[in-house]
Write a structure and sequence with these properties.
single chain; 339 residues; alpha/beta; seven-stranded parallel beta sheet; binds NADP nicotinamide-adenine-dinucleotide phosphate; binds ligand F7E
């Protein structure tokens, strides 16, 4: 039996990865947080096929209990247990507000999982994927960024993920665990959390088109991101765990756009012509045909330190894993607005 264990199964990537593993015939397990309101919206359509356990990356005991429950169930019949660590406090701006919590979950949480794997009797049958991030490049030292580009994190989130990245490599080298990092650039979908910029824009554009919202309030619209689709990226995660040796890979599209360009493409898709006037906090986007304001800027969405530009080079993943992506930026926007 091939088994997958996903932390962060209720998140954007966790939901797409669950679908992929089920399609491939895996038994899928997931760690969910207890929440006072429902947090399983993204997996409700497949929930009967999943083995969910309550847990949290702050709690070594529960992580160990779940891991041993799985390995005890199969014992020597276990072929492989693929552990995908997708659980995280994943919002960069929020990490400035709750830095200690973010470090505990996104940094030390990785160590907790690796320790449980190291101590498991079936350690040699366990493979570990760490959700590393292009945020590690931060104040980017080279353009485009590859697996060899030096890191320069710019937020508590990125600093915590830097620890996660290195502890994954350290456990690979010390304890011979099949453990690797996917350094993933931004990836989006209709399942993206509401407060990330692409979802905020596409939802806002839909609402404006339907007359349910007047305008969208944005932060820094001049940063640039290399945006792909989560479905393409979870396939790359799976590929990384199917190799002879654990190796770290960048996944990206190799194209980047500013937030302002993303806004323009989104309005264009619903046939609204946006024009701009003013500068800085006074800049606004307006409807050329009606004169109505569509975009305003508010400094409350600015970050204390910004990551101005990210652009990835995933040549290594393309050549060694045979990974490619299917969605371009317009396809992503179309799906996010239509769904
Ligand atoms: P997401 O939608 O925010 O999902 C995060 C998941 O982590 C959710 O299931 C969340 O549970 C869970 N989680 C949060 N705190 C936890 C804790 N203390 N213990 C256990 N689980 C916890 O994130 P995503 O976009 O799917 O990203 C998946 C992973 O890839 C994250 O590690 C993220 O940092 C990383 N990453 C994302 C991107 C991207 O562009 N999407 C790029 C690079 C790396 P609830 O549902 O209960 O909140
Ligand atoms: O911001 C700017 C903001 O929050 C993108 C996470 O998945 O990808 C994600 O991190 C840009 C930033 O994503 C608003 O200042 C302007 O420059 O959508 P975001 P992120 O910070 O790039 C990486 C790879 C991860 O690893 C993370 O987990 O958009 N921006 N105005 C805004 N951003 C937000 N959220 N809201 C605004 O109103």
């Amino acid at each position: 039996m091939k088994v997958g264990l996903i932390t962060g199964i209720t998140g954007q990537d966790g939901s797409y990865l669950s679908e992929l593993l089920l399609k491939k015939g895996y038994e899928v397990w997931g760690i969910c947080r207890r929440s006072s309101s429902s947090n399983t919206m993204r997996i409700n359509h497949i929930i009967d096929k999943l083995n969910l356990r309550y847990g949290d990356l702050s709690d070594s005991i529960c992580i160990n209990n779940i891991l041993t429950e799985i390995t005890d169930k199969y014992g020597d019949d276990l072929i492989v247990l693929e552990v995908y660590n997708l659980g995280a406090m994943s919002h960069v701006k929020v990490s400035f507000d709750i830095p200690e919590y973010c470090s505990d979950i996104d940094g030390t949480g990785v160590l907790r999982l690796l320790e449980c794997i190291k101590n498991n009797k079936y350690k040699d049958k366990i493979r570990f994927y760490q959700a590393s991030t292009s945020e590690l490049y931060g104040l980017a030292q080279n353009i485009p960024q590859t697996e060899n580009t030096p890191f320069y994190p710019r937020s508590p989130y990125a600093c915590a993920k830097l620890y996660g990245y290195w502890i994954t490599i350290n456990y690979r080298e010390c304890f011979n665990i099949y453990a690797c990092n996917g350094i993933l650039f931004n990836h989006e979908s209709p399942r993206r959390g509401d407060t990330f910029v692409t979802k905020k824009i596409t939802s806002g554009v839909c609402n404006i088109k339907k007359g349910k919202q007047d305008y969208i309030t944005m932060g820094n619209i001049y940063s640039k991101r290399d945006w792909g689709h989560a479905k393409d990226f979870v396939y790359g995660m799976w590929l990384m765990l199917q190799q002879d040796k654990p190796v770290d890979y960048v996944l990206s599209t190799g194209k980047h756009y500013s937030i302002k360009e993303f806004i323009e493409m989104s309005f264009e898709y619903v046939n609204i012509n946006i024009k701009w006037k003013g500068e800085g906090l006074d800049e606004i986007g307006y409807d050329e045909d009606t004169g109505k304001t569509l975009i305003v800027i508010d400094s409350k969405y600015f970050r204390p330190t910004e990551v101005d530009t990210l652009l990835g080079d995933s040549t290594k993943a393309m050549l060694e894993l045979g990974w490619k992506y299917k969605y371009d930026i317009k396809g992503i926007i179309k799906e996010m607005i239509d769904t």
